[in-house]
Protein backbone atom coordinates (compact mmCIF):
# COMPACT_ATOMS: atom_id res chain seq x y z
CA UNK A 1 0.00 0.00 0.00
CA UNK A 2 2.83 2.33 0.90
CA UNK A 3 4.66 1.57 -2.36
CA UNK A 4 1.54 2.36 -4.41
CA UNK A 5 1.06 5.59 -2.47
CA UNK A 6 4.66 6.61 -3.11
CA UNK A 7 4.34 5.87 -6.83
CA UNK A 8 1.13 7.91 -6.96
CA UNK A 9 2.83 10.85 -5.23
CA UNK A 10 5.80 10.66 -7.61
CA UNK A 11 3.51 10.64 -10.65
CA UNK A 12 1.42 13.55 -9.34
CA UNK A 13 4.48 15.58 -8.40
CA UNK A 14 5.95 14.96 -11.84
CA UNK A 15 2.68 16.01 -13.46
CA UNK A 16 2.52 19.25 -11.48
CA UNK A 17 6.16 20.01 -12.22
CA UNK A 18 5.43 19.53 -15.92
CA UNK A 19 2.37 21.80 -15.74
CA UNK A 20 4.37 24.46 -13.88
CA UNK A 21 7.12 24.23 -16.51
CA UNK A 22 4.57 24.64 -19.30
CA UNK A 23 3.25 27.76 -17.57
CA UNK A 24 6.75 29.23 -17.24
CA UNK A 25 7.77 28.58 -20.87
CA UNK A 26 5.69 31.46 -22.35
CA UNK A 27 7.16 33.90 -19.82
CA UNK A 28 10.69 32.78 -20.69
CA UNK A 29 9.93 33.17 -24.39
CA UNK A 30 8.59 36.70 -23.83
CA UNK A 31 11.78 37.68 -21.96
CA UNK A 32 14.05 36.18 -24.64
CA UNK A 33 12.06 37.75 -27.48
CA UNK A 34 12.24 41.19 -25.84
CA UNK A 35 16.04 40.82 -25.84
CA UNK A 36 16.29 39.58 -29.44
CA UNK A 37 17.41 41.75 -32.35
CA UNK A 38 14.43 42.71 -34.54
CA UNK A 39 16.16 41.57 -37.76
CA UNK A 40 16.71 38.14 -36.21
CA UNK A 41 13.00 37.92 -35.36
CA UNK A 42 12.06 39.00 -38.88
CA UNK A 43 14.30 36.44 -40.56
CA UNK A 44 14.13 33.48 -38.17
CA UNK A 45 11.01 33.99 -36.08
CA UNK A 46 10.73 33.33 -32.36
CA UNK A 47 13.39 31.18 -30.74
CA UNK A 48 14.66 30.29 -27.29
CA UNK A 49 18.20 30.57 -28.68
CA UNK A 50 18.36 33.71 -30.83
CA UNK A 51 21.36 34.38 -33.02
CA UNK A 52 21.67 38.02 -31.96
CA UNK A 53 20.77 39.67 -28.64
CA UNK A 54 19.80 43.31 -28.28
CA UNK A 55 18.45 45.80 -25.72
CA UNK A 56 17.10 47.98 -28.53
CA UNK A 57 13.46 47.41 -27.57
CA UNK A 58 14.03 48.66 -24.02
CA UNK A 59 16.14 51.56 -25.28
CA UNK A 60 13.34 52.50 -27.67
CA UNK A 61 10.72 52.45 -24.91
CA UNK A 62 12.97 54.43 -22.58
CA UNK A 63 13.90 57.04 -25.20
CA UNK A 64 10.34 57.40 -26.47
CA UNK A 65 8.71 57.96 -23.11
CA UNK A 66 11.36 58.32 -20.44
CA UNK A 67 9.67 60.95 -18.29
CA UNK A 68 6.13 59.81 -19.00
CA UNK A 69 6.94 56.21 -18.07
CA UNK A 70 8.48 57.28 -14.76
CA UNK A 71 5.45 59.44 -14.03
CA UNK A 72 3.11 56.63 -15.08
CA UNK A 73 4.91 54.24 -12.72
CA UNK A 74 4.40 56.69 -9.84
CA UNK A 75 0.70 57.08 -10.68
CA UNK A 76 0.22 53.32 -11.03
CA UNK A 77 2.05 52.48 -7.80
CA UNK A 78 0.05 55.10 -5.89
CA UNK A 79 -3.30 53.95 -7.28
CA UNK A 80 -2.43 50.28 -6.73
CA UNK A 81 -1.37 50.72 -3.11
CA UNK A 82 -4.14 53.18 -2.21
CA UNK A 83 -6.81 51.26 -4.09
CA UNK A 84 -5.77 47.94 -2.57
CA UNK A 85 -5.87 49.31 0.99
CA UNK A 86 -9.21 51.03 0.44
CA UNK A 87 -10.68 48.05 -1.40
CA UNK A 88 -9.67 45.53 1.25
CA UNK A 89 -11.04 47.79 4.00
CA UNK A 90 -14.39 48.35 2.26
CA UNK A 91 -14.81 44.68 1.34
CA UNK A 92 -13.94 43.61 4.90
CA UNK A 93 -16.41 46.09 6.40
CA UNK A 94 -19.13 44.73 4.11
CA UNK A 95 -18.26 41.04 4.39
CA UNK A 96 -17.89 40.87 8.15
CA UNK A 97 -21.55 41.68 9.02
CA UNK A 98 -22.71 39.19 6.37
CA UNK A 99 -20.72 36.47 8.14
CA UNK A 100 -22.55 37.11 11.42
CA UNK A 101 -25.77 35.15 11.95
CA UNK A 102 -27.00 37.71 14.48
CA UNK A 103 -26.91 40.62 11.99
CA UNK A 104 -30.54 41.68 11.55
CA UNK A 105 -30.31 42.84 7.93
CA UNK A 106 -27.92 40.13 6.78
CA UNK A 107 -30.18 38.71 4.05
CA UNK A 108 -31.03 42.16 2.67
CA UNK A 109 -27.41 43.23 2.24
CA UNK A 110 -26.45 39.79 0.95
CA UNK A 111 -29.14 40.20 -1.71
CA UNK A 112 -27.72 43.60 -2.73
CA UNK A 113 -24.26 42.05 -3.08
CA UNK A 114 -25.50 39.04 -5.04
CA UNK A 115 -27.81 41.09 -7.29
CA UNK A 116 -25.00 43.40 -8.40
CA UNK A 117 -22.94 40.35 -9.37
CA UNK A 118 -25.62 39.46 -11.92
CA UNK A 119 -26.80 42.89 -13.10
CA UNK A 120 -25.27 46.33 -13.44
CA UNK A 121 -26.59 49.79 -14.17
CA UNK A 122 -24.75 49.93 -17.50
CA UNK A 123 -21.74 51.86 -18.70
CA UNK A 124 -23.60 55.12 -19.42
CA UNK A 125 -25.08 55.46 -15.93
CA UNK A 126 -21.76 54.38 -14.40
CA UNK A 127 -19.89 57.06 -16.36
CA UNK A 128 -22.44 59.78 -15.57
CA UNK A 129 -22.27 59.05 -11.84
CA UNK A 130 -18.47 59.02 -11.77
CA UNK A 131 -17.96 62.01 -14.08
CA UNK A 132 -20.93 64.28 -13.33
CA UNK A 133 -22.08 63.37 -9.82
CA UNK A 134 -18.80 62.47 -8.14
CA UNK A 135 -16.78 64.74 -10.48
CA UNK A 136 -13.88 62.33 -10.74
CA UNK A 137 -12.75 63.33 -14.24
CA UNK A 138 -9.06 64.28 -14.40
CA UNK A 139 -8.44 63.42 -10.76
CA UNK A 140 -6.36 60.61 -9.31
CA UNK A 141 -9.50 59.29 -7.60
CA UNK A 142 -10.94 58.37 -11.00
CA UNK A 143 -8.39 55.56 -11.09
CA UNK A 144 -9.28 54.35 -7.58
CA UNK A 145 -12.87 54.90 -6.45
CA UNK A 146 -14.74 53.19 -9.33
CA UNK A 147 -12.95 49.91 -8.55
CA UNK A 148 -12.75 49.70 -4.75
CA UNK A 149 -15.86 47.53 -4.39
CA UNK A 150 -16.32 44.05 -5.83
CA UNK A 151 -19.22 41.80 -4.88
CA UNK A 152 -17.31 38.61 -5.71
CA UNK A 153 -14.55 39.59 -3.28
CA UNK A 154 -17.24 40.17 -0.65
CA UNK A 155 -18.46 36.60 -1.14
CA UNK A 156 -14.93 35.19 -0.82
CA UNK A 157 -14.11 37.14 2.35
CA UNK A 158 -17.54 36.54 3.89
CA UNK A 159 -17.07 32.78 3.41
CA UNK A 160 -13.61 33.00 4.93
CA UNK A 161 -14.89 34.85 7.98
CA UNK A 162 -17.80 32.44 8.43
CA UNK A 163 -15.68 29.28 8.20
CA UNK A 164 -12.45 30.39 9.86
CA UNK A 165 -13.45 32.58 12.80
CA UNK A 166 -15.18 30.63 15.62
CA UNK A 167 -18.37 32.25 16.92
CA UNK A 168 -17.20 31.45 20.47
CA UNK A 169 -14.19 33.73 19.95
CA UNK A 170 -16.44 36.64 19.05
CA UNK A 171 -18.74 35.90 22.00
CA UNK A 172 -15.81 35.89 24.40
CA UNK A 173 -14.61 39.24 23.02
CA UNK A 174 -18.09 40.66 23.64
CA UNK A 175 -18.04 39.39 27.20
CA UNK A 176 -14.73 41.20 27.70
CA UNK A 177 -16.45 44.44 26.64
CA UNK A 178 -15.20 44.75 23.05
CA UNK A 179 -17.44 46.54 20.57
CA UNK A 180 -17.94 45.46 16.97
CA UNK A 181 -15.13 47.61 15.55
CA UNK A 182 -12.70 46.32 18.18
CA UNK A 183 -13.71 42.74 17.38
CA UNK A 184 -13.24 43.31 13.67
CA UNK A 185 -9.90 45.13 13.73
CA UNK A 186 -8.24 43.46 16.72
CA UNK A 187 -9.65 39.94 16.59
CA UNK A 188 -11.11 39.01 13.20
CA UNK A 189 -8.73 40.71 10.75
CA UNK A 190 -5.47 39.60 12.47
CA UNK A 191 -6.74 36.01 12.31
CA UNK A 192 -7.79 36.36 8.66
CA UNK A 193 -4.45 37.14 6.99
CA UNK A 194 -4.83 34.41 4.31
CA UNK A 195 -8.24 35.74 3.26
CA UNK A 196 -7.10 39.37 3.43
CA UNK A 197 -3.97 38.57 1.40
CA UNK A 198 -6.06 36.81 -1.25
CA UNK A 199 -8.36 39.80 -1.66
CA UNK A 200 -5.39 42.17 -1.56
CA UNK A 201 -3.72 40.24 -4.39
CA UNK A 202 -6.89 40.38 -6.48
CA UNK A 203 -7.14 44.14 -5.94
CA UNK A 204 -3.44 44.63 -6.65
CA UNK A 205 -3.66 42.82 -9.98
CA UNK A 206 -6.86 44.67 -10.87
CA UNK A 207 -5.48 48.15 -10.17
CA UNK A 208 -2.09 47.41 -11.72
CA UNK A 209 -3.59 46.12 -14.97
CA UNK A 210 -6.33 48.76 -15.23
CA UNK A 211 -6.26 51.05 -18.23
CA UNK A 212 -10.01 51.44 -18.82
CA UNK A 213 -10.62 54.03 -16.10
CA UNK A 214 -7.74 56.10 -17.44
CA UNK A 215 -9.25 55.91 -20.92
CA UNK A 216 -12.70 56.96 -19.67
CA UNK A 217 -11.86 59.74 -17.23
CA UNK A 218 -8.31 61.02 -17.75
CA UNK A 219 -7.13 63.52 -20.35
CA UNK A 220 -4.33 65.03 -18.25
CA UNK A 221 -1.11 63.26 -19.30
CA UNK A 222 0.36 63.60 -15.79
CA UNK A 223 -2.44 61.42 -14.40
CA UNK A 224 -2.26 58.60 -16.92
CA UNK A 225 -1.19 55.25 -15.55
CA UNK A 226 1.34 52.77 -16.86
CA UNK A 227 -1.04 50.36 -18.59
CA UNK A 228 -2.74 53.14 -20.56
CA UNK A 229 0.61 54.56 -21.62
CA UNK A 230 1.87 51.17 -22.79
CA UNK A 231 -1.41 50.47 -24.55
CA UNK A 232 -1.05 53.79 -26.39
CA UNK A 233 2.49 52.95 -27.45
CA UNK A 234 1.35 49.54 -28.64
CA UNK A 235 -1.51 51.08 -30.63
CA UNK A 236 0.88 53.51 -32.33
CA UNK A 237 3.20 50.68 -33.34
CA UNK A 238 0.22 48.71 -34.65
CA UNK A 239 -0.91 51.74 -36.65
CA UNK A 240 2.54 52.09 -38.21
CA UNK A 241 2.56 48.40 -39.12
CA UNK A 242 -0.83 48.60 -40.79
CA UNK A 243 -0.06 51.79 -42.70
CA UNK A 244 1.63 51.49 -46.08
CA UNK A 245 2.23 53.65 -49.11
CA UNK A 246 3.41 56.64 -47.06
CA UNK A 247 7.12 57.36 -47.34
CA UNK A 248 7.31 59.14 -43.98
CA UNK A 249 5.56 56.29 -42.18
CA UNK A 250 7.76 53.72 -43.93
CA UNK A 251 10.87 55.61 -42.84
CA UNK A 252 9.55 55.90 -39.26
CA UNK A 253 8.66 52.23 -39.15
CA UNK A 254 12.17 51.30 -40.23
CA UNK A 255 13.50 52.81 -37.01
CA UNK A 256 10.94 51.15 -34.76
CA UNK A 257 11.45 47.62 -33.42
CA UNK A 258 8.05 45.97 -33.44
CA UNK A 259 7.82 42.38 -32.20
CA UNK A 260 10.47 42.75 -29.52
CA UNK A 261 8.93 46.04 -28.36
CA UNK A 262 5.62 44.29 -27.77
CA UNK A 263 7.36 41.71 -25.60
CA UNK A 264 9.38 44.40 -23.82
CA UNK A 265 6.15 46.27 -23.06
CA UNK A 266 4.78 43.08 -21.50
CA UNK A 267 7.84 42.83 -19.25
CA UNK A 268 7.68 46.52 -18.29
CA UNK A 269 4.02 46.07 -17.33
CA UNK A 270 4.25 42.67 -15.63
CA UNK A 271 7.73 42.79 -14.10
CA UNK A 272 6.81 44.38 -10.73
CA UNK A 273 3.85 42.01 -10.27
CA UNK A 274 6.10 39.00 -10.93
CA UNK A 275 8.35 40.27 -8.13
CA UNK A 276 5.48 40.92 -5.68
CA UNK A 277 3.46 37.75 -6.26
CA UNK A 278 5.77 35.25 -4.44
CA UNK A 279 5.26 37.19 -1.20
CA UNK A 280 1.48 36.70 -1.50
CA UNK A 281 1.55 33.12 -2.74
CA UNK A 282 1.43 31.30 0.62
CA UNK A 283 -1.47 33.37 1.93
CA UNK A 284 -3.19 33.31 -1.47
CA UNK A 285 -3.32 29.49 -1.54
CA UNK A 286 -4.50 29.31 2.07
CA UNK A 287 -7.19 31.90 1.46
CA UNK A 288 -8.63 29.99 -1.49
CA UNK A 289 -8.59 26.55 0.13
CA UNK A 290 -9.49 27.03 3.79
CA UNK A 291 -13.16 27.77 3.07
CA UNK A 292 -13.47 24.72 0.84
CA UNK A 293 -11.86 22.44 3.43
CA UNK A 294 -13.84 23.66 6.42
CA UNK A 295 -17.12 24.31 4.60
Automatic annotation (TrEMBL):
Tell me any Pfam family this protein matches.
Answer: BPD_transp_1
- Residue ranges spanning the membrane: these are 12-35, 72-96, 108-128, 140-162, 183-208, 261-280
Q: Pinpoint the ABC transmembrane type-1 domain residues.
A: 69-280
| Recorded topology in the membrane | Multi-pass membrane protein
Any single biological process term in GO: transmembrane transport
Subcellular location per UniProt equals: Cell membrane
Q: Per its UniProt entry, which superkingdom is the organism in? A: Bacteria
CDD domains recorded for this chain?
TM_PBP2
Q: Which UniProt keywords apply?
A: Cell membrane, Membrane, Transmembrane, Transmembrane helix, Transport
GO annotation, cellular component aspect: plasma membrane
| Cross-referenced PROSITE patterns | ABC_TM1
Q: What family does the Swiss-Prot or TrEMBL record give for this protein?
A: Belongs to the binding-protein-dependent transport system permease family.
- The protein here is known as Carbohydrate ABC transporter permease
Q: State the organism of origin.
A: Ructibacterium gallinarum
Amino acid sequence: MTAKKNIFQIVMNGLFILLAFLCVIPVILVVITSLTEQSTLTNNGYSFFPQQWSFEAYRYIWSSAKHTILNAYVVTIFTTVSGTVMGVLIVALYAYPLSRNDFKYRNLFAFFSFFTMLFSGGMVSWYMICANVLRLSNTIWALILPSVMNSWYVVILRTFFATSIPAELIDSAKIDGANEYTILFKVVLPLSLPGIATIALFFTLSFWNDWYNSLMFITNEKLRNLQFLLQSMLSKIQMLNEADGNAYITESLANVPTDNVRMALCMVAAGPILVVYPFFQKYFIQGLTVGAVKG
